[in-house]
Amino acid sequence: MTEDARLEDGAARLEQAISALEAAAVKQKQTTKSLDALRSEIGDLRAGRAKLAEQLDAADSRNAQQASVTQEISGRIDTVMDNIRLLLSGV
Predict the structure, then answer these.
(1) DSSP type of residue 2
(2) Which residues, 6+ apart, have CB-to-CB distance to 1 below 8 Å?
(3) Tell me: the pLDDT tens digits for 26-85?
(4) Can you tell me whether residue 91 is helix, strand or coil?
(5) Distance separating alpha carbons of residues 53 and 47, to the nearest angstrom
(6) Interior CA angle at 90 toward 85 and 91, to 5°?
């Protein structure tokens, strides 16, 4: 192999190596962008989860309050019904 042929062969291999390195760099950049996008999405999901948890706690609190009011009203209705029965039975 002549020196010119070896130089051309070496230059071709260098070009291939540079192309492979560029391709790897592009792939790494895409991977980094994908990871950044996923991290952002995870942050958004965590914020949404926190908001939903807060809303659920508020709804649970309202539900407990309504259950207490319902129980109190039910007791009052039972008392009124008992009084009406007593009045009707005494007539």
Answers:
(1) -
(2) 9
(3) 999 999 999 999 999 999 999 999 999 999 999 999 999 999 999 999 999 999 999 999
(4) coil
(5) 10
(6) 105
